[in-house]
Specification:
The protein is an alpha+beta fold. The protein has 10 helices and 15 strands. Strands 1-7-6-4-5 form a 5-stranded mixed sheet, with helices on both faces. Strands 8-15-14-13 form a 4-stranded mixed sheet, sandwiched between helices. Strands 2-3 form a two-stranded antiparallel ribbon. The structure holds oxa(dethia)-CoA. The site of oxa(dethia)-CoA (UT7) has 19 residues, from helix 2, helix 6 and helix 7.
Amino acid sequence: MEQVKKGVTIISSGSAKVTQVLDNHDLSKIVDTSDDWIKTRTGIRKRHIADVHSLCDLASQAAQKAIVNASLTPADIDMIILATSTPDDLFGSASKIQGMIGATKAVAFDLTAACSGFVFALITASQFIRNGVYENIVVIGADCLSRWVDWSDRTTCVLFGDGAGAVVCQASEFGDRLLGFEMCSNGSLNSALNLAYQGEIKNIGHHKQITQGQFGKITMNGREVYRFAVNKVPEVIEKALFRADLTIEQIDWLILHQANQRIIEAVAERLNIPSWKVISNLSEYGNTSAASIPLALDEALTHGKIRNGDRIVTSGFGAGLTWGAAIFQWGNLP
Ligand code: UT7
């Protein structure tokens, strides 16, 4: 049977509340740092850290809100893509979330691309809609990096927070609102940012060996990742703009992965995007990895900044190294 091609619309968002707050003053009691250093070098004032809540709890909350805001029920959802690097279960957490929210007909899977995860998942979801297979897809970006932070390393522990955000993508007969995208990887820079498995060789008898261990803590060469982001993010956005046949002046909002305010401002400056078009909530949440873009998007929508039809440039970048950009128009059609 021939399948009908459809357009993609991104029609609603939702996010989870992580109530426990860790501010810069709290951190200065844990490691040798100061509120002034963190604010000046990163723009972060506080971050939200999950306590008793699991990744699945946060992701489910965000997904449920996005589904309600789309005026759908969980039973309408065909697919759930969970972008995360911190699942509750290495086999994946998306299926558990599917069960928790009662999205009984949805197929669910995890997608791991660190801080690029949400952008990669949004683009992946769009392919399933464009080829006519699915109608309603929930894309979740959720991470609890606090689990894997080395709380004695001041170069990383001041950066990260926990959170979850989600959007609903829906098929449309009336047009396609994913205007352009581009995705990239460079594994030769993999060692710049890792949360690596560390195993020891063990003998299991009969001259057979295995490697068993656990995951370590986050390690990062901050300066290298900073340089990479400031160089590669403007480039990938320009490529996505070219594919969308748009100029930067036609863009209403820039929502970058919230890693560092200096990165956000440097990218905006290189692209000639005025500061009033730049959405940032980094000071409140820190770097929430795959959650940062949907969290910032949901907050901007809640505050009434973004309206139906606005053109949004979004770009994620991070471990892998991976980076990508997606340009879309907000809201449903017609
Ligand atoms: O989501 C994944 C993507 N990740 C990123 O995008 C992160 C990109 N990198 C960054 O955002 C920045 O590189 C950091 C915020 C991580 C670091 O800022 P920086 O301006 O690049 O600082 P630096 O690493 O060059 O360190 C400058 C100084 C060093 O001291 P010395 O060697 O000059 O004496 C550090 O030891 O600041 C010191 N330092 C700190 N001091 C107080 C590093 N961390 C801290 C700290 N408090 N928390």
